[in-house]
Design brief:
Structural class of chain A: alpha/beta
Number of helices of chain A: 15
CATH class of chain A: Alpha Beta
Number of strands of chain A: 19
Helix content of chain A: 25-40%
Strand content of chain A: 5-15%
GO molecular function, one term (chains A, B): arylsulfatase activity
CATH superfamily of chain A: Alkaline Phosphatase, subunit A
EC number (chains A, B): 3.1.6.1
InterPro entries (chains A, B): Alkaline_phosphatase_core_sf, Sulfatase, Sulfatase_CS, Sulfatase_N
Oligomer: homodimer
Enzyme class (chains A, B): hydrolase
Strand order of the largest sheet of chain A: 8-7-6-5-9-1-10-12-2-13
Number of domains of chain A: 1
Protein name (chains A, B): Arylsulfatase
Chain lengths: ~550, ~550
């Protein structure tokens, strides 16, 4: 296991500790609670804490009033997280014309709630999902991207997840769809706070790319054995083999694989059926949860739009293999939101929809999703990797048709949903929580965010710092801070024209921010990633999965 | 004078004439009239002419009904053309958040009318304005970009302009702002169909960049004498000198320079006063025109957002020297539209607002306007150079809040406004008119465009052909057509991933389109550019302008 107790903030060389101390000299305790915060938040709280504390009183009164009118209960939460879709590709008619993808149901949701115009995520699936689940930068939990292979690691049981927090406040919790938090038992969703979960262990590279159909669509090079003869192959395990596909499980129980039988080959048809099943299951879960007394937290993390084979008949004008599925997914979201209405849940359910990171730019030109406004995509610290569409609806509480240009980070939703659920007390106090409470922004509107900064990591490496309209790309090792490029992302959204030479003041300020962050890490070292034997706690493991696990075990 | 009577369609090598003939074999006369069309339009008319003719009957009835309800008169037309602003930078709240520029008044106009989501222009100011004024690709009139210097050329009096067409149908016509159609008397707006005009002869490089303030803002290199000593200068005329600034004139009369006195130095303050004066004058013109019996055609072509000095205090979050003025201009447009309402003109006035071409990418990063969605800018055939925001409002006739993904070219507005003004009969029949009548699109909505193609020129060179969602960049001389890159601009809006190798069918189809276009040119050769002595017809020419003209004359 990799230990992260030493300072590890990537490219930046950390200066003397005396500087850190002076950087934090003016900070004081958070305005609202005793949650452990990053240095930068404390720096802001020192400037605005009194105002925030005052504002929090009226917000608490509003939330209490809501619960009173709702039979003493906080609202339900339906959280939809879409995979690998860049900012501008959902929720906006004008952009639909640019892309030839009709997202009318998401557009409608956007109009019914607040558009968070500056939502930052982590640059890849696993980290963003960890950040949402834990309210922490994933690096603090030892989490990087989980590969499509046996790894014997994943989200540690020591991490406290949002569903665990919400359960303590009486919520019922269900998860449907992509999970991608590891292949060990402690990481499975039904062991991380969900009463019930249906999920694939791995991700879509396995489920839609490692197929014969993806090869035929010219997307998958060299995986499928029908694509080339193999006289000279020695290593039979270079290509992933025998991976578990879709599981279902209940809290405290074992999981069961349901999408594949022993000896069966996974195909695009399996993938499409899996997607359809998740859509059916989220509707089913919504109905089941709505019949219970307690409020619910329902998570729907679709696998689409990721998809690497062409359909029989495209439904979008774009026709790209991701784009077309994005339009299909939009109709499914329409169906889900119609079900919310049909079950009479509209007024009492906070619905949030966002994407986890930017597009898979590797398939640009044929996937149909392209770098649109911001440069870069998945895996990259550029705005195109970490800026996504995000919409949140809570009728009568969040202003319909509103928008906010404030900075929000995906981890903020952990803290904010906890507050809305009256569960702030259950947020752990023994570790850093990066998620900032954004309830003021949602309830009081634009201009009420409590962060104006984001630290952008690629895996364990701090690659950028965002503050206000500025963004510094961290200097490479050995390069002086004064040479680090700083961008104004309003004037230069594609981060192509660094303001080097006329932004030296901001270079110095960014160095201070890096130091405040580093000092926080020094005081509160990163926790270890969960480790274990892969595929434990699955009751019907296929022989091929057992075999592949034995191979894995044989040299670990 | 450059003659263009020989085939000159740029990079494409023209094949045998027999091919052209076969390309046109199935064409027949236009559906609606005897206007001379480009081959490609005839090719479409051969497929859809009967349907269009039928549709035209009901459109004619609608227009007649409108006139009947409006005291026998067609509507007023207010046409606002903004300089150098790329698609997505006006009219859309989400994009306002990206750029930090608030265009709330344009956004509102967009919501009150139809958004033309695929408006193509020419890639630069002079050609786009010629295309609008004449309904012709500027190359047919010998027009390229007019430089900031004495040229002794401009729009020929033989060209028939929209205001000339509208005047024959009884319209009063006024022009306020940028003109940029040449420095010879026949080219001035009051000699090209406008009853009254206030306009600078040249463009904003002279008016805002060739100043001491622009040098101090680090935008203007080497023009202003205070920026360097000049011991070794021999040529006193390398830097433009003595240029005429702002003129006013009435049809049939001489022009008068009003923004500068003899011996005075032009400064940024002059430029700002000039902009403010045009804004005041367009309000004044609107009021004057509204008091007359006949309908009016009022053209407002602001000089802002082009601007190269920083303001005392920025008003936008962006603060870039173009961006900030775009936000100011938006408030001015709000003022103008409020005046339309105040004068009771709202219901009887078609208001159109669009930009003439993409941003000046040369100043990206500091101007505050950046390549956003499409790649490229002014002077380039890339989508970023020729795709602009365009909105048109006609209450009760054009559906409020509607949008159209159909292709439209700026020249279409010539033909369309003529139709709306009941003036189609005055469109000349002795030359090619590229502008397609888009009244069906405006009145019947999305899907009713009568073009699905655009020929994109840079000056006299045909650089791209757009058809449906495809775009071919013309092959360089000597390069086989099969090697020309073809892009799908829905899947790849930035034209970065050519579909070469899997779009050979479209390469062949694009070659056919080029041939149809070339044959039309062969049948109807380009007309000559207007030529003359610069600055004639100005009654108060300053001594320095007289001097600079004499120098010009001395070697021409």
């Amino acid at each position: 296991m990799k230990k992260r107790s030493k300072l590890d903030i990537g490219w930046l060389r950390i200066g003397a500790v005396v500087l850190f101390a002076s950087g934090l000299a003016s900070s004081k305790a958070s305005a609202t609670d005793d949650i452990v915060r990053d240095g930068e938040y404390n720096f802001l709280a020192a400037q605005h804490g009194d105002v925030w504390a005052e504002q929090d009183k009226s917000i608490d009164a509003k939330l209490a009033e809501y619960r009173e009118q709702n039979g003493g209960k906080p609202p339900n939460i339906l959280y939809i997280l879409i995979d690998d879709v860049s900012f501008g590709q959902m929720g906006n008619r004008a952009m639909n014309y640019v892309t030839g993808i009709d997202t009318q149901h998401v557009n409608k949701l956007a109009q019914e709630g607040m558009s968070l115009m500056r939502m930052y995520t982590e640059p890849s699936c696993t980290p963003t999902r960890t950040a949402f689940l834990t309210g922490r930068h994933p690096v603090r939990a030892g989490v990087e991207e989980v590969k499509v292979a046996l790894v014997g690691e994943g989200l540690a049981s020591e991490e406290v997840t949002l569903p665990e927090v919400l359960k303590q406040a009486g919520y019922n919790t269900s998860h449907v769809g992509k999970w991608h938090q590891g292949d060990i038992e402690q990481s499975y969703p039904h062991n991380q706070g969900f009463d019930w979960a249906a999920f694939p262990v791995h991700q879509q590279v396995q489920l839609s790319l490692m197929t014969r159909e993806a090869m035929q669509a010219n997307n998958m090079l060299g995986f499928h054995p029908s694509g080339q003869s193999n006289e000279f192959h020695i290593d039979q395990r270079f290509r992933p083999y025998g991976l578990v596909t879709g599981l279902e499980g209940e809290a405290g129980g074992t999981a069961k694989e349901i999408d594949l039988q022993p000896g069966e080959e996974w195909t695009q048809a399996h993938y499409e059926r899996m997607n359809e099943r998740y859509q059916a299951q989220v509707l089913e879960q919504l109905e089941n949860l709505s019949q219970k007394d307690d409020p619910f937290f329902l998570q729907y993390w679709p696998l689409y739009p990721l998809n690497f084979a062409y359909p029989e008949q495209a439904i979008s004008r774009n026709g790209g293999f991701h784009a077309d599925k994005l339009q299909l997914l939009d109709t499914w979201i329409g169906e889900l939101l119609a079900k919310v209405d049909e079950l009479g849940l509209r007024e009492d359910t906070v619905v949030m929809l966002m994407a986890d990171n930017g597009l898979m730019y590797h398939y640009e030109g044929t996937s149909g999703l392209s770098q649109l406004i911001y440069r870069g995509g998945k895996t990259q610290h550029l705005e195109g990797g970490v800026r996504t569409d995000a919409f949140i609806r809570w009728p009568g509480v969040i202003e319909a048709g509103s928008a906010a240009g404030d900075i929000v980070h995906v981890s903020d939703m952990f803290t904010t949903f906890a507050r809305i659920a009256n569960a702030t007390d259950y947020i752990p106090r023994d570790r850093v929580i990066d998620g900032v409470d954004q309830t003021a922004l949602l309830l009081e509107g634009e201009g009420n965010s409590r962060r104006d900064y984001v630290y952008v990591y690629e895996g364990p490496v701090l690659r950028s710092i965002v503050k206000q309209e500025f963004k510094m790309h961290m200097p490479a090792p050995g390069v002086p801070g004064a040479a680090a490029p700083v961008f104004n992302i309003l004037r230069d959204p594609r981060e192509e024209n660094p303001q080097i030479g006329n932004a030296l003041w901001s270079g110095a300020s960014f160095q201070d921010m890096a130091k405040r962050h580093a000092l926080t890490i020094e005081k509160h070292p990163h926790l270890p990633l969960g480790k274990g034997k892969p595929y434990e706690g699955i009751e019907n493991l296929r022989p091929e999965s057992i075999e592949t696990r034995e191979v894995f075990d044989s040299w670990h």
